[in-house]
Amino acid sequence: MTVWNLGSINIDHVYALPRLPQAGETLAARGLTQGLGGKGANMSAALARAGADVRHVGAVGADGLWARDRLAAFGVDVAEVAVLDAPTGHAIIFVDDAAENLIVIHGGANRALPWAKVEGALARARPGDRFLTQNETAWTQEAARAARERGLSVAYAAAPFEAAAVRAMLPFADLLILNAVEADQLRAATGRGPGALGVADVVVTLGAEGCLWIGADGERRLPAPRVQAVDTTGAGDAFTGFLLGGLDRGLPMGDALSLALRAAALQVTRPGAADATPSLAEAEAFDA
């Protein structure tokens, strides 16, 4: 089957800092790197690394053709990536010595993607395929509805968190993925915990503590491998990509989650986002 990922493609500008800045403070960066990023692109890269047939639906500007080509080099089908008369999305990322980060994004072409491009891509999907989306691009709710109507299973990573967007997506989601902070924000906004959202499977990532899966048989907590983190950027995206990739290959949810946790643990031991994504062989062999 195919995973259709409607998601962002960003150019990441990553600054290495001794600590994250406070309001009004100026800090000197020790280094600057540029690479492929965006939650959508990161997840597509992870899906491809996990062995899935993934088709990315998104957009870049003329300044981002290299980012589209870099995504293709991971094994992602980029035929549905439009080139628009708009700047490519970008992110300013600060990473400190404790591997924590602070990120500011500009949507650019991600927010200018025409609905006709999304609709045309989904017209080529088949029942039984999977659809994945996040909150960094246009048309997420409309595309999720269309995907569900076409018989696709819908997975939704609720980041960057927007309570209204999550509420609107809940009727269409078969799998909801969010972190602990986002789960608390959603509870505050809706008055409902992860197990009371009407979604078949909810996964709450817990960073170094692993994840919590709420499904038909109740709750199950899975631990994460212990590693020394150097950069947590993109770890959640690697987790999501490997989770969907494992499910697409027929793994049971528990096994797919275990694979995703190993991939995310490996990811944080390397600097970068999409370019730091481990291979399937590395994730399967990893045992920290």
From TrEMBL:
<comment type="subunit">
    <text>Homodimer.</text>
</comment>
<keyword id="KW-0808">Transferase</keyword>
<dbReference type="InterPro" id="IPR002139">
    <property type="entry name" value="Ribo/fructo_kinase"/>
</dbReference>
<protein>
    <recommendedName>
        <fullName>Ribokinase</fullName>
        <ecNumber>2.7.1.15</ecNumber>
    </recommendedName>
</protein>
<dbReference type="Pfam" id="PF00294">
    <property type="entry name" value="PfkB"/>
</dbReference>
<keyword id="KW-0479">Metal-binding</keyword>
<keyword id="KW-0119">Carbohydrate metabolism</keyword>
<dbReference type="InterPro" id="IPR011611">
    <property type="entry name" value="PfkB_dom"/>
</dbReference>
<dbReference type="GO" id="GO:0005737">
    <property type="term" value="C:cytoplasm"/>
</dbReference>
<keyword id="KW-0963">Cytoplasm</keyword>
<feature type="binding site">
    <location>
        <position position="267"/>
    </location>
    <ligand>
        <name>K(+)</name>
    </ligand>
</feature>
<feature type="domain" description="Carbohydrate kinase PfkB">
    <location>
        <begin position="6"/>
        <end position="278"/>
    </location>
</feature>
<comment type="similarity">
    <text>Belongs to the carbohydrate kinase PfkB family. Ribokinase subfamily.</text>
</comment>
<feature type="binding site">
    <location>
        <position position="270"/>
    </location>
    <ligand>
        <name>K(+)</name>
    </ligand>
</feature>
<feature type="binding site">
    <location>
        <begin position="10"/>
        <end position="12"/>
    </location>
    <ligand>
        <name>substrate</name>
    </ligand>
</feature>
<feature type="active site" description="Proton acceptor">
    <location>
        <position position="237"/>
    </location>
</feature>
<feature type="binding site">
    <location>
        <position position="136"/>
    </location>
    <ligand>
        <name>substrate</name>
    </ligand>
</feature>
<keyword id="KW-0460">Magnesium</keyword>
<feature type="binding site">
    <location>
        <position position="237"/>
    </location>
    <ligand>
        <name>substrate</name>
    </ligand>
</feature>
<dbReference type="GO" id="GO:0004747">
    <property type="term" value="F:ribokinase activity"/>
</dbReference>
<dbReference type="GO" id="GO:0005524">
    <property type="term" value="F:ATP binding"/>
</dbReference>
<feature type="binding site">
    <location>
        <position position="231"/>
    </location>
    <ligand>
        <name>K(+)</name>
    </ligand>
</feature>
<comment type="function">
    <text>Catalyzes the phosphorylation of ribose at O-5 in a reaction requiring ATP and magnesium. The resulting D-ribose-5-phosphate can then be used either for sythesis of nucleotides, histidine, and tryptophan, or as a component of the pentose phosphate pathway.</text>
</comment>
<dbReference type="GO" id="GO:0019303">
    <property type="term" value="P:D-ribose catabolic process"/>
</dbReference>
<feature type="binding site">
    <location>
        <begin position="38"/>
        <end position="42"/>
    </location>
    <ligand>
        <name>substrate</name>
    </ligand>
</feature>
<dbReference type="InterPro" id="IPR011877">
    <property type="entry name" value="Ribokinase"/>
</dbReference>
<feature type="binding site">
    <location>
        <position position="272"/>
    </location>
    <ligand>
        <name>K(+)</name>
    </ligand>
</feature>
<keyword id="KW-0067">ATP-binding</keyword>
<comment type="pathway">
    <text>Carbohydrate metabolism; D-ribose degradation; D-ribose 5-phosphate from beta-D-ribopyranose: step 2/2.</text>
</comment>
<keyword id="KW-0418">Kinase</keyword>
<feature type="binding site">
    <location>
        <position position="233"/>
    </location>
    <ligand>
        <name>K(+)</name>
    </ligand>
</feature>
<dbReference type="InterPro" id="IPR029056">
    <property type="entry name" value="Ribokinase-like"/>
</dbReference>
<keyword id="KW-0547">Nucleotide-binding</keyword>
<feature type="binding site">
    <location>
        <begin position="205"/>
        <end position="210"/>
    </location>
    <ligand>
        <name>ATP</name>
    </ligand>
</feature>
<feature type="binding site">
    <location>
        <position position="179"/>
    </location>
    <ligand>
        <name>ATP</name>
    </ligand>
</feature>
<dbReference type="GO" id="GO:0046872">
    <property type="term" value="F:metal ion binding"/>
</dbReference>
<feature type="binding site">
    <location>
        <begin position="236"/>
        <end position="237"/>
    </location>
    <ligand>
        <name>ATP</name>
    </ligand>
</feature>
<keyword id="KW-0630">Potassium</keyword>
